[in-house]
Design goal:
alpha/beta; 4-stranded parallel β-sheet
């Protein structure tokens, strides 16, 4: 793979993929101490960068190959990219998706004209079923990241970045299987002064051990909200490029990604899925670490509304803006009001109250109150604890 492959792929994407904006962020620039821009692939067609690689891959199939159709496995973003690319190229697509895939992603994939088959298990099982289908029918299997054409298509994101920010010094890119990071890393052939950093979720860190071992290794994935980059084993083709060209791979916590998603919503009005916010999470966890100007790729914005609610709640909690606690108070008239008035005086908004006098752990004439409150941050949380303790309450 060479940068020239990416340049050639760009001509195929003319009129297909959107040249997404690369917008400045004053909030992140102040945090990082340098200019920070956001490459908004969450605004790309199908809501992520995946249409780029999928279209290049299918467009380069022969007429006879396309006549047999294409098949892919995905929980969402790759599925939508393949479905739309196949429709644009008059090719039939079949997508194997895990049972329980997000309803909006399933609906969008079906809306682009693809046939969907659900598989018990996760993406790994879906890939096996898709590959078996390809062997049975002759349909072309479209891998989400382990193919030269996929890398070439995804790498066009990097070409746009250096055109939009000619003096860029650091590019932060989410990394799962490695297709996007590898495609962008090919920029180093022409721009050796640009530092390219991959960012993975701590619970799905495959590249750190793989790079240490010198070859792709399979790891057990932990629970993570960043399903878009939760891949148990890197692809060989992107791994080879990344091992040669990528400067560093960082990992970020679930708390950092949820806070990044929340801040992107509040400060930049950008809806980004957790995996797409990984680069912003790295900036928040390591302010001042990266030479600027910095461009962080928001790789996708496809997130189920129910998942979004949970991530926002997680982010509020991690940011110190959501506090849940229990307190034991005397079982006498007016005591609950005393507690609530104390919280009101602190300008704390009460979200939920549960009053329990039946627990076996309670003493005589004692009740337990469980509260959920919203606060303005960790300083106010500390004030709540100090005030209630000072009033003689037993905080649990």
């Amino acid at each position: 793979m060479q940068l020239s492959d990416v340049v050639t792929a760009r001509s195929l994407l003319d009129g297909v993929a959107t040249t997404t904006p690369c917008v400045s962020s004053r909030w992140l620039s102040d945090l990082a101490g340098t200019t920070v821009r956001l490459k908004c692939e969450n605004l790309q067609r199908t809501g992520s960068f995946k249409i780029r690689g999928a279209y290049v891959r299918i467009a380069r199939l022969s007429t006879e190959e396309r006549s047999r159709g294409v098949v892919a496995a995905s929980a969402g973003n790759h599925a939508q990219g393949v479905a739309l690319a196949a429709a644009m190229l008059d090719t039939k697509a079949r997508i194997f998706m895990p049972e329980g895939a997000a309803i909006p992603k399933v609906s969008a994939t079906r809306g682009y004209g693809a046939d969907i088959e659900f598989v018990h298990g996760g993406v790994t099982e879906a890939v096996k079923e898709a590959q078996a289908y390809a062997q049975r029918t002759g349909a072309e299997f479209i891998h989400p990241f382990d193919h030269d054409d996929i890398l070439a298509g995804q790498g066009t994101v990097g070409l746009e970045i250096v055109e939009q920010v000619p003096d860029v010094r650091t590019i932060l890119v989410p990394i799962g299987g490695g297709g996007l990071a590898a495609g962008i890393a090919l920029l180093r052939e022409k721009h050796p002064d640009v530092r390219i950093v991959g960012v993975q979720a701590e619970a799905a860190s495959t590249y750190v051990p793989s790079l240490s071992s010198g070859a792709p290794v399979e790891v057990d994935l932990g629970p993570t909200m960043a399903d878009g980059i939760a891949v148990s084993r890197p692809g060989q083709i992107p791994f080879d490029v990344i091992a040669e060209h990528l400067d560093e791979v960082l990992t970020v916590s679930e708390e950092a990604m949820s806070q990044a998603l929340l801040q992107l919503l509040e400060r930049t009005k950008m809806l980004v899925e957790p995996s797409g916010a990984a680069g912003v999470a790295a900036l928040m966890e390591h302010p001042g670490r990266f030479e600027g100007p910095v461009v962080t790729v928001l790789s996708g914005g496809n997130i189920d509304a129910l998942v979004l609610m949970e991530v926002i709640r997680h982010g509020l909690n991690a940011a110190g803006r959501f506090l849940a606690f229990r307190v034991r108070i005397p079982d006498r008239p007016g005591e609950l009001m005393r507690l609530l008035v104390a919280l009101a005086d602190l300008q704390v908004n009460i979200l939920n109250v549960q009053h329990d006098r039946t627990s076996e752990s309670l003493g005589v004439r004692q009740v337990e109150v469980a509260l959920q409150v919203s606060t303005r941050g960790t300083d106010q949380q500390a004030q709540v604890r100090e005030t209630l303790t000072g009033l003689g309450y037993d905080l649990l």
